[in-house]
Every structure is written in structure tokens, then in C-alpha cells.
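Notebook entry, structure prediction.
Reason for the run: the old model in the group folder had no record of what sequence produced it. Starting over properly, with the input documented here first.
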Amino acid sequence: MAESALCKKKLDGKVVIVTGGASGIGEAAARLFANHGARMVVIADVQDEAGQRVADSIGLEHAIYIHCDVSDEEQVKSMVGWTVQNYTQLDIMLSNAGVGSRSDQTILDLDFSELDRLFAVNVRGMAACVKHAARAMVNGHVRGSIVCTASLASCTGSDKYLDYFMSKHAVLGLVRSASKQLGVHGIRVNCVSPFIVATPLVCHVLGVDPEQAEEVEKIFEPQSPLKGVVLKENHVADALLFLASNDSAFVTGHNLVLDGGHLNS
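New structure, fully documented this time:
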């Protein structure tokens, strides 16, 4: 009897890198990718203890942790090279690592040192991940999938957090251009733009203990026209899986917005 399409492991045998995989959306995605049959999920992060715990809990036969600061291109290059050397190829890159704004940045008082700090991860780091993953895929003749985690901030503006909103608009530009340039190699490039999720990073930016994540959800839930649903890390992970897998084989250059109809309200 044929395996049910609903039960099919969508990443069977694939080698995956998840940056920012030690917590939040990245952790949820790493677990889901492993559950869907990935041969190896390389969890890349700067949170060494947390990253190792995630790899251990998934199982070291399917996941491994490696320290990588994506703001350093050489570390990204080495991480991708190490993955290919040890697992023969790279099929999927989830460029998820990111940081939030540490202040209510506005254009009149823009602190460029803060902007540079944030862009080093959210823009340069993401570009480095796309660049070196794509090079590995081209060299290995792999028709791979590169997925970036953007934000609803990529689609709108704000009266504060200027540096963060700028960075996420840059991610969308990266995805749209890289998808055109890499399509000739059969490589797809997409991104997911979620509304606010009460991840440890978001809680930290808002000054809330991650153990009190439900308090953050209560603040933002009324802003969504889709009542009765609170955006969780697993919802974003499901969208990332769709874009990483062959379910989206003809999708590239796309920004999958997860906002519960927020932009339409």
C-alpha cells in the first residue's frame, strides 16, 4: 500500500543547515526537518550550550551542532565547507539567524553603530549564508532550496525600530535577486515573513522573561483579523518546511507572509 501523502517524509535523505537553530523558530524548524527524514541537520548558532542541547535531543545520528557567527563570512564559508566535506553535499540552507533592534531607532536619531551591528547579522550574515550555500550547491550540482527567515517588517514600515525594518526589507531584496540569478542552476530561493512570534529573541527585545511568552502573545493577538489562532514557532516551521521541500518545487523568489490577514486589515 502506498504511503499516505500526509505521512510522507518530505526531506528524506536531505542534508540541511539551519542557522540560528539553537532556539525559537530555528529550533522548531530543525526538529521538524529531522522528523521529516533529513539525513543530517546541521544546527549553526553562537549559543553553544543551547545548540548542543537541541542536537542531543534530536539525536546525534540526525543532528549536529556547530558554532557559527554568521556576521563573519569566513565562519559561514567554513561551516558550509565542513558540512559538504562530512556529508557529501548540501541540499537545503535555512538562513534564519537574526537579531532585533536594541533601541527605538528613528530616522531623526539614527545610531549608525547600532544599525551596523544589526545589519552585520540580519543582512551581511544572511547574504553570506545564501552566497556560500549557493556555491556549494552549484559546485555539487545540487538543485537545492535556500530559505530565509524575514519578517512582516519586510512588507511595511514603522514609527520605530528603523534599523530592523530596513534589514528585513534588505532580506526581501536579497531573495528576489538571488532567485533570479540562481534559477539557471535549479536552485530555489524564498523567504518567510511571519508576524510577531513570542520567541526568546522577541521576549528579550521586549524585556519579557521567555517563560512569560504568553504575555507577549496576549499583546499582539488582538492585532490579527484571524481570531482564535496565535502564531507559534511551529506554524512558521511548517511554512519553512513547505519552501524547503519539493512541495514548492515551482516556487522561487516568493515571500510567504504569515500574518493572519494583518496587512489586509
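Summary: The radius of gyration is 18 Å.
The old model has been moved to the deprecated folder.
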